[in-house]
Write a structure and sequence with these properties.
The protein is built from 15 helices and 29 strands. α1 packs across α11, α2 runs antiparallel to α6 and α2 packs across α11. The radius of gyration is 29 Å and the shape is globular. By secondary structure, the protein is of the alpha+beta class. Strands 3, 7, 8, 9, 10, 11, 12, 21 and 24 form a nine-stranded mixed sheet that branches. Strands 16-14-15-17-20 form a five-stranded mixed sheet, with helices on one face. It binds one RNA strand through β16, β21, α13 and α14.
RNA sequence: CGGGGCGUAGCGCAGACCGGUAGCGCACCGCGUUUGGGACGCGGGGGUCGGCGGUUCAAGUCCGCCCGCCCCGACCA
């Protein structure tokens, strides 16, 4: 490709609203342009990189038996109504009506379409297992797109769907993906760690997220360096230290003026925060059939812990949750700062599973300025649900081995879900088994967003000057710079010759044939970040060849004119070998 | 959805407080000089100042409403 012909130009300055490096550099280098919040145009250079990423995904998916196909972006609402996600998902779903006033959905994901197509295509166990995938556009109207390509509303995703006759089959396909995904990320030269994750709107049994660890990430993970436990904070478990057992003491009301926080309460009464109970009030939207009802949720947790809203949402099977307003709190008889589960009405009480183990806690009296001492679960109040609703923190004990957990930020670049029969049962996607029984197909789903992935590659591989593409995903392998100064048509001729020669040899070259100064060309080469830079100039010619430089290294040297193709072949093989060395087998954590 | 910020040429910004013919740098077009780290001279093109309404002789500037974009939080796969 001649740079003089390339569509799109580089920018000396990044748009003021681009903050993180991948966003700034991808925009400056002319890889992406924004159309609206969370909606981007992929320019030719980025398109080439994304195509390479997609081909890596195809390669790995085909290797585990995947068959590529394409499913529609626009769906009739009926299939989403059949699985009830039409009702469960809120404003993130893109809905519109067609010309006949029929409800339509923009694809957020394709479980419904898969479950629909299998209704007609799979009748027998002989047609299982199968693995199908496609690379297709998704629309998720995220309330807050941000950070360039990291979090967008419209994006392209590789999503695969496994179809099995039994759970052993699903387990096998899940494990296949577990390793194939590591291979994909490693071949793109980004380090990832797989952690257990919330199943969220997908439903299902088991899920992992592949996290690229970076400060710009918006997910928080808890990792155990001792035993390897890793989980998204949304579902991370931890060992809760138990309060010492003691006999139940009589309840006692004490005056605690101006003591609205756990910290001040513990200090005033001279008890550890773990001897207090804290209340959190939420309003939850809970689906009931095709309707949604609002319920007041009163969550109780020990004072030394925080409520994890994902766990709480899952515990009550809510569609959405928000903090209750002061009026709503007052209307159920509670008093913010002095709230207590004792003596409430018309609320769903959810208590953390550490509470029943913790005798004689201090709780609010539902009266401003007063708390109750020695409040005990069962004797003084009851709960609708007892489960783990606590949020794991840095330093909490690992649920598996008891070592300290540490927290770190990450970007979710992929996920895998054991869905089971949630979609196939809802949609009547059954097959006839060997034993003559009709059974629902067992599904798994597995996704990787290609745009987010390229942003993570850019985030991982850049410096102050620009991008530094790994050879496997670079738009072009070679950036050929011609410094054709005054009176040196020989230099331009040699560059043209080299361009033709390397193309014939099968390499991908971005040829800077523009009439620009050396500074402009070198700066653009650094910004665009192709793995190899070749410079043809008077100087290099006088030294008998062309200058070679790797983008990720400082050293330069002169390759004799006759040896260029041979040397480039060696260097590119070397680069591929460096990345291949990172593609390793990862122990399965399931 | 809550809090904050910003919308003036493709990009980065001034002008607004104090109303009076819309500017600068980069980028772009032409001619010439220049060519190993974002060259220089001369000449040029490009803006309904986010939108609508109001105040005023006069609005980029003052007032109101709306829209868009960004950041923090909530939320999310």
């Amino acid at each position: 490709m001649r740079m003089s012909q390339l569509f799109g130009q580089t920018l000396r300055e990044a748009p003021a609203d681009a903050e993180i490096p991948s966003h700034r550099l991808l925009v400056r280098a002319g890889f992406i342009r924004q159309l609206a919040a969370g909606i981007f145009t992929v320019m030719p250079l980025a398109h080439r990189s994304i195509t390479k990423i997609e081909n890596i995904m195809r390669d790995e998916l085909n290797a585990i038996g995947g068959q590529e196909m394409t499913m529609p972006v626009v769906h009739p609402a009926e299939i989403w109504q059949e699985t009830e996600r039409w009702y469960q998902i809120g404003s993130e779903m893109g809905r519109f009506k067609d010309k006949n006033n029929r409800d339509m959905v923009l694809a957020m994901t394709h479980e419904e379409v898969v479950a629909d197509i299998t209704r007609t295509e799979v009748q027998s166990y002989r047609q299982l297992p199968r693995l199908i995938y496609h690379i297709q556009t998704k629309w998720r109207d995220d309330p807050r797109p941000r950070a360039g390509l990291i979090r967008v509303r419209e994006f392209t995703m590789k999503d695969s769907y496994s179809l099995d006759m039994d759970w052993e089959g699903l387990d096998k396909q899940y494990r296949n993906h577990y390793q194939a995904y590591f291979n994909i990320f490693h071949r793109c030269d980004i380090p990832v760690t797989a952690v257990r994750s919330d199943v969220g709107m997908m439903g299902g049994k088991l899920a992992h997220e592949y996290m690229y660890l970076t400060a710009v990430g918006e997910d928080t993970l808890l990792l155990c360096d001792n035993c390897g436990y890793g989980a998204n904070r949304q579902i991370a478990r931890f060992r809760k230290n138990e309060n010492p057992p003691e006999d139940l003491k009589p309840i006692k009301k004490v005056a605690t003026p101006d003591t609205k926080t756990i910290e001040s309460l513990a200090k005033l009464l001279n008890v550890p925060e773990s001897r207090t109970a804290k209340a959190v009030f939420m309003i939850a939207d809970i689906p009931e059939g095709t309707d949604t009802i609002e319920r007041f949720v009163f969550a109780v947790i020990r004072g030394d812990m925080d409520v994890n809203e994902t766990k709480l949402t899952n515990a009550i099977k809510a569609k959405a949750m928000r903090p209750a307003t002061e009026e709503e709190i007052a209307s159920v008889g509670a008093v913010p700062g002095y709230a207590s589960p004792v003596g409430l009405k018309d609320v769903v009480v959810v208590i953390d599973d550490a509470i029943p183990q913790s005798p004689n806690l201090v709780a609010g009296a539902n009266e401003t300025g007063y708390h109750l001492m020695n409040v005990n679960y069962e004797r003084d109040y009851t709960a609708d649900i007892i489960t783990d609703i606590a949020s794991a923190q840095e330093g909490d004990a690992c649920p598996d081995c008891g070592s300290d957990l540490r927290t770190i930020r990450g970007v979710e670049v992929g996920n895998i879900f054991k869905l089971g029969t949630r979609y196939t049962e809802a949609m009547g996607s059954y097959f006839l088994d060997r034993d003559g029984q009709e059974k629902p197909i067992i599904m798994g789903s597995y996704g990787i967003g290609s745009g987010r992935l390229i942003a993570c590659v850019a985030e991982e591989h850049h410096d102050d000057l620009g991008l530094i593409w790994p050879i496997t995903v670079a738009p072009y392998e070679i950036h050929l710079v011609a410094l054709s100064g005054r009176g040196t048509s020989e230099t331009l001729e040699e560059a043209e010759k080299l361009y033709a020669e390397l193309q014939t040899a099968g390499y991908e070259i971005l040829f800077d044939d523009r009439d620009e100064s050396p500074g402009v060309k070198f700066n653009d080469a650094d910004l665009l970040g192709m793995p190899i830079r070749l410079t043809v100039s008077d100087r290099a010619r006088s030294q008998g060849g062309v200058e070679y430089k790797r983008r990720d290294k400082q050293e330069k040297d002169i390759i004799p004119s006759g040896d260029v193709v041979k040397r480039i072949t060696e260097e590119i093989n070397q680069m591929h070998a460096e990345i291949q060395a990172k593609v390793v087998s990862i122990p399965y954590d399931g």
